[in-house]
Design a protein that fits this description.
With 180 residues, the protein is of the alpha+beta class. Helix content is 15%, strand content 51%. It has helices at residues 2-17, 71-81; strands at residues 20-32, 39-51, 56-62, 67-68, 89-96, 106-118, 121-134, 137-147, 166-176.
Length: 180
């Protein structure tokens, strides 16, 4: 029993030091500007976690959760390009490189170094973003380019003018800091 209590106390101490805040409705989107047609898709069902002590950040979304204005685009996205049945999620796992104090209200520009896993291919990215701390809440926002070929996403020559080779990915999440 003594060892069990010690383990529980150590775990409780770790949880206080490694405060993790979670967003269950992170927004993710991408925009493809192409000569024939612009393509935009959004998902509001992503998840994100921010570890306040280690300053690591994580985003995850199911590929099939992205919604398009045209259902045919959504079908082609999932079946032909992203192969969502084979690669169901996209994930980003990164570390904030800047020295910031997330316990103080303010707007902080940040640089995040991390890995983006799309279509089963993991690639390292340096992403600029912004963290805003206000009244016990944190919001995270970033927009960055993703080259489709880097993630082995093939665009048939027939539709190459319809889809940009580089798309702009936007991520956004809101977290509530629990008071101790």
């Amino acid at each position: 029993m003594k060892y069990f209590i010690t383990i529980v106390l150590l775990a409780a101490s770790w949880m206080v030091q490694a405060q993790i805040v979670i967003s269950h409705n992170a927004q993710l989107s991408f925009f493809s500007e192409a000569p024939i047609e612009n393509i935009n898709a959004e998902s509001n069902t992503g998840v994100s976690a921010l570890n306040l002590s280690t300053k690591t950040i994580y985003f995850k979304a199911f590929m099939s959760s992205f919604k398009f204005k045209k259902s045919l685009m959504q079908e082609h996205f999932n079946e032909n390009y992203m192969e969502s049945f084979k690669y169901p999620t996209a994930e980003f796992n990164g570390k904030i490189k800047d020295q910031i104090d997330l316990t103080k209200d303010g707007t902080y520009p940040v640089t995040v170094l991390g890995d983006l896993n799309i279509h089963g291919v993991i690639k390292n990215y340096i992403v600029k973003g912004e963290l805003k701390v206000m009244g016990g809440e944190i919001s995270a926002n970033s927009t960055f380019p993703v080259k489709l070929a880097d993630h082995e996403i093939k665009i048939p020559k027939l539709v190459i003018r319809n889809i940009a080779e580089i798309v702009q990915v936007t991520v956004s999440a809101q977290y509530k800091i629990e008071s101790k």
